Amino acid sequence: MQRHRNESFCCGAGGARMWMEENLGTRINEERVRQAEETGADTLATGCPFCMTMLSDGIAASGNSEKLETRDVAELMLESIKT
Prior knowledge:
By secondary structure, the protein is mainly α. It has helices spanning 28-39, 49-62, 73-82; strands at residues 43-46, 69-72. It has one domain. α1 packs across α2. The chain is globular.
C-alpha cells in the first residue's frame, strides 16, 4: 500500500476532520481504501477507532464491502492466539 509505516498517510479523521465534509477533491478515506484495494488485500487492520470508522465508510462508498473489511488489530491478535 502506498504511504505506509514511516511514510504513512492519515485516514482522513485526524484533527477532528472526521466530522467535516470535503467540499473539493477526493475524500481521504476513499483514496486510502482505493490504495488498499490495489494491493488485493481483503482486510484493513487498524488500532484506531477513528480510522476504523473512516476506513469502513470508505469501503462502503467504494461498494466493495464484500471483498474488503476493516478489523481492529486487537481482534486479529485475539483470533491468532485462539487458533
